[in-house]
From TrEMBL:
PANTHER family: GPI MANNOSYLTRANSFERASE 1 (PTHR12886:SF0), PIG-M MANNOSYLTRANSFERASE (PTHR12886). GO terms for biological process: GPI anchor biosynthetic process. It comes from Tolypocladium ophioglossoides (strain CBS 100239) (Snaketongue truffleclub). Its main location: endoplasmic reticulum. This is GPI mannosyltransferase 1. Pathway: Glycolipid biosynthesis; glycosylphosphatidylinositol-anchor biosynthesis. Its EC number is 2.4.1.-. Mannosyltransferase involved in glycosylphosphatidylinositol-anchor biosynthesis. Transfers the first alpha-1,4-mannose to GlcN-acyl-PI during GPI precursor assembly. Required for cell wall integrity. It is an enzyme of class 2 (transferase). It is a multi-pass membrane protein. It is found in: Endoplasmic reticulum membrane. GO terms for cellular component: endoplasmic reticulum membrane; glycosylphosphatidylinositol-mannosyltransferase I complex. InterPro entries: PIG-M. Keywords: Endoplasmic reticulum, Glycosyltransferase, GPI-anchor biosynthesis, Membrane, Signal, Transferase, Transmembrane, Transmembrane helix.
Amino acid sequence: MALASLLRPAPLFLLAGLLRLALLLYGSWQDAHSAVKYTDIDYLVFTDAARLVARGASPYARDTYRYTPLLAWLLLPTARAAAFGKLVFAVADLLAGALILRILLRRRGRAMSVEAAGGFAALWLWNPMVATISTRGSSEGLLGLLTMALLWAVETRRVGLAGLVLGLAVHFKIYPFIYAPAIVWWMDDENMGRLCHGRAKPAPSLAAAVVSFCSPDRIRLAVVSLATFTGLNLLMYSIYGSPFLVHTYLHHVTRIDHRHNFSPYNILLYLTSAVPSSSSSLRTESLAFIPQLLLSCVLIPLALAKRDLATSMMAQTFAFVTFNKVCTSQYFLWYMIFLPLYLPGSSLLQKPALGISALVLWLVSQAAWLQQGYQLEFLGHSTFFPGLWLSSLWFFLVNCWILGLIIGDGVGRLETKSTSKAHIE
């Protein structure tokens, strides 16, 4: 009973806020008293860029600033209050949690109590990893907020708002474009509430099917999202010119980053970085996108999005991060935000042994990589091969297995949805 009372909205968010406040205070103390800083190096890049903008300069005058100028604009107050950005990211975490709770209650209705929904939302709100990353100064919380706002807008059929959020999210971080195919595929007459129950219609011709697929809602989503994305890009290009395109977008296509990288491409990128003029450089980075985009943009949306959009987005993001040529711990937040929506009814909860095994393997394989990374970064031991490579491969295989479980759950929900709908109606 005591725990259930803490899972009601007021105490749930109060404790989540206190957790982040405590971490902000602790981080300030550690930065002042320890050689190992709490603040993420990326936050120093953000704040330096914001100070440049405050002086009328370009944020790209700061080396390694690879983000939209919107982020530097948002953090302009850090020129006077250094912790302002961390506070913004922490608040974004909380707002994302509020949307998670709202989506859970809307999707589950009377089948889930407020306390049960709060328990799942706590997986994000009370998650120490989530709170630590945002209070260290990582902007991933903003992406979590945009992602949940996108899902909420789509499921509540606010098509114009969904297009606006999608365009903004892709401008902000590129990767949310993977959700566009899933959303478009999901937006059929049934899910948009326009299916007329009556006698079955004959199968349409190919031309009629194409015309029917290009529904007003789908066209509106495409137009609004593209207009938002294009408008923001034109605005930023008019102000900052080609450095905006190079650092915000083109850099990520040919990015070679072998440090703090869980990806099995780690060793290949390390070897490639030693010969930057190699003709195989572009080919290596380009080929890495093929399995990643095929899974996250085509196969998974086609298999899952029609009936369970949240599970599809979870699987898409998990595949995108797992197969990405650069994989850091911050990227884990991209799919962790979907956990509260995916877990209810999942095999990981219905079969506790399976869920515990997945969690333990995910943590242990990650710890094995971190142990090798510690020896490399702090002790100066050359662990790239075989230690770091084998641990990267192990972590990759564990993630592939978990991805298979998520997809299997999504397929299972496809088979049961029609039955559950009949009961609801």
